[in-house]
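Sample pair:
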Amino acid sequence: MSGVGSTEPPGSGGAGSAGAGAGISDWDQLAREKQQRYEVSHGDLDERAVVRLGNLAYAAGLSLLMTGSPSAAEWLLLAAEHWRTSWDLGERRDSWGRPVGAVKAALLAGDEATVAELAGWTLSLGAADASSPIGLYAASLAFLAKRSDDDAAPLAAALRRSDDFPCDVAEALAALAAGDKAGFLRAVDEVVRSFETRHEYLEDVAVADTALVLCELARRHGLACELSPSPVLPAGTSRSRPARSRDGTRS
């Protein structure tokens, strides 16, 4: 799932505008393009303009992450800052994709202080009591980032029951809250598969950011998470993906 339209930050899956798929060959060039667009004037910095700046900064950060550049963190944190600011500028209080995006960006940047701050901020907004799945997702990420697994577990269970939330992401959240490593790895593999087969990505950047975020949360829980090599993941992963039999089960 994603925010509404191409001006919203990533929700559960990070989809946005239609993109070129998972065939990007020059991540450095893509990062430069997003950085250049970020620097272009966006007019009055109203709520939507600030969201767009966050989207572009996130796209640049993900592209740099794919190259292994240390400057990725700077752009990811910039995205988190813009999305938090956009929440304060908006009148609606149900744009939960923005806290989701902010927490995800901070986790990917590896900035402990910002993760703690944004997790606390997300929960202070009442995400745990939200009526929408994306609000509950925001709270789940925040609780898991804080290692508050007992608080995350019922929210993840609610997401598993929802017809409006990706089941693979919900399964990964629930498994992580329960400390179920095998279940978590199965679910995160499915998340990667969903990114490999989709046709839309935020700002046309084909990166499985949700899978990377889930693995960062797993690391914080002491669970090793080696993702299978994939065109939607940074290089350096090594775990072999379980094969599927013809009936769809894993061998």
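The chain is about 60% helix and 0% strand.
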